[in-house]
Amino acid sequence: MEPSIVKSDSIVVFKSHRVVLPHGVASAAVVTKNGQIVAVKGYDDSRIALGINDEYQPISVIDLGNLVLSPGVVDSHVHVNEPGRTHWEGFTTATRAAAAGGVTTIVDMPLNSIPPTTTKENFLEKFTAASDNVFVDVAFWGGIIPGNQDELIPLLREGVRGFKCFMCPSGVDEFPQAKEEDLEIAFQRLQNSSTTILFHAEVECCSAVSTNTEEIPSVYQGFLQSRPGVMEVEAIRLVIELCRRYRVQSHIVHLSCAEAIPLIAQAKKDGVPITVETCPHYLTLSAEEVPVKATQFKCCPPIRDKSNQDLLWSGLLDGTIDLVVSDHSPAPQDLKCVDTGDFMKAWGGISSLQLVLPLLWTFGHPKGLSFTDLSRFLSYNTAKLARLHHRKGSIAVGMDADFVIWNPDEQITVTPEMLHFRHKLSPYLGKVLNGRVVMTVLRGQIVFNNETFVFDKPQGILLAEPLE
Predict the structure, then answer these.
(1) Rounded Cα–Cα distance for residues 66 and 139 (Å)
(2) What keyword terms does UniProt attach to this protein (predicted)?
């Protein structure tokens, strides 16, 4: 199919024998108009075959055959870093990478930009930076830091989807960690609001191993020992206690330590309003395979061993882990200490925004992951976390016509040339993955088609509906 531009007010039908609907996969025809899904019909519906709808208006039909038509991916954990650190990443480069990967909505994290999204004034500055610069739709998280409790409700009224906090140093001075007393205040302020608090759940404790040998900085094991799993377990134990007490929806970001899964499962069984995510790097990479000086593998919390990875997969497939996100957090090569390979000094972050779908499919399908599972973990549950599920994350009447059309049987090789985020340093370079994104559709518009961006100008919008 050649790249084409579809007028937003046109009636366009996307047909496939494998459409991922909320109740399962079916042969179907998805009818779109004005950026929304207006009907879901049978693949062989006679009116669609004739190019007319029930009102006898002409329609365009795009027959995708056996390609999979899934809801567009909603990545609810992306560090765009603009304004202030746009040389790390930016709205234009990040959202182009998203579109190329079938991601139709991202939710931007509040830190690493300067200023961080911790006040209404700061949010408006970020909103201005993003305006007219996004190739997919973008929503925003706010931040909780010491002393900004009076800004939380005003930020909700401006449209942030919830609040991220760090229970340990974040790595940037302008986003300090929240102590337990800061969290208590935030929970109290947000008790009567419809929002979510997101936790980077690591706490500093005496179990962290300190090493001083000369070989350690370039050997991954030294970094791994410096952030043991108990840091996550104890942090999550505290989050569950606070969430149980105040009943404010809480969410654990980027879970890497499987030892915490039983705690989370029991909390859910007890009715504690808590959810949890993990990331492709924890599900597809293991500590045993990290080469010496390969700082592109560094992230916080760290990639752990293969036995831990197997338990994360079990937690995902049994539903204890709710969703999978990229935690896309790039940095320039000098900050990744590429020349020295120093794991202790390198910036911690993995670049994978464009690759989430093929990564999860490649490694998950052999374990029994279905198309429906994939859409639940990557689209519906991520949209629900960000309170966007009334318009994003599923193929149903009234939803935005956001789709990823992909071939699960076609392989791609990850190369710097095919990546569209700013810095091409990634632990996935050279990997062969299953699942090629053929087309990305944003609110009824084809924005990416067969390795080509259809529009020169960004077509995304900023999602900032007020919450209280």
Answers:
(1) 32
(2) Hydrolase, Metal-binding, Zinc
Residue 427 one-letter amino acid: P
Please give the share of the chain, as a percent, with pLDDT higher than 90: 90
Query: Measuring CA to CA, which residue among 14, 104, 31 is closest to residue 68?
Result: 14
| Residue 405 tokens, joined | 């059309």
Biggest CA-to-CA distance, the chain:
77
- Tokens describing residue 351: 């670049």
Q: SS3 of 18, please?
A: strand
84: number of Cβ within 10 Å: 17
The C-alpha angle with vertex 143 and arms to 138 and 145, in degrees rounded to 5, equals 165
Q: In the chain, what are the domain boundaries?
A: 12-69+400-453, 72-385
> Is the pTM of the predicted complex or chain greater than 0.90?
yes
Task: Over range 164-184, report the average pLDDT.
Answer: 97
Dihedral angle computed from the Cα positions of residues 60, 62, 68 and 70, in that order, rounded to the nearest 10 degrees: -20
Assigned fold of 12-69+400-453? Urease, subunit C; domain 1 (2.30.40)
Bridge partners for 13 per DSSP: 31, 61
Mapping DSSP to helix (H, G, I), strand (E, B) and coil, where does residue 24 land?
strand
CA angle 133, 139, 145 (to 5 degrees): 110
Write down the CATH superfamily of domain 72-385: Metal-dependent hydrolases (3.20.20.140)
* pLDDT above 50: residue 213: no
End-to-end CA distance of the chain: 45
Alpha-carbon distances, residue 268 vs 30, 36, 233, 261, 274 (angstroms): 35, 34, 16, 11, 7
- Range 55-80 burial, b when 16+ CB lie within 10 A, else e: eeeebeebebeebbbbbbbbbbbbbb
CB neighbours of residue 206 within 10 Å: 5
pLDDT, mean of residues 18-42: 95
SS3 161: coil
Q: What is the 3-state secondary structure (H, E, C) of 178-240?
A: CCHHHHHHHHHHCCCCCCCEEEECCCCCCCCCCCCCCCHHHCHHHHHHHCCHHHHHHHHHHHH
CA neighbor of 198 nearest in space, from 466, 386, 349, 353? 386
Summarised one tens digit per residue, pLDDT across range 357-393 is 999 999 999 999 999 999 999 999 999 999 999 999 9
DSSP assigned state of 265 = H
Cβ contact 12:6 at 8 Å: yes
- In degrees, rounded to 5, the angle at the alpha carbon of residue 195 between the alpha carbons of residues 390 and 91 is 70
pLDDT grade, residue 308 (50/70/90)?
Answer: very high
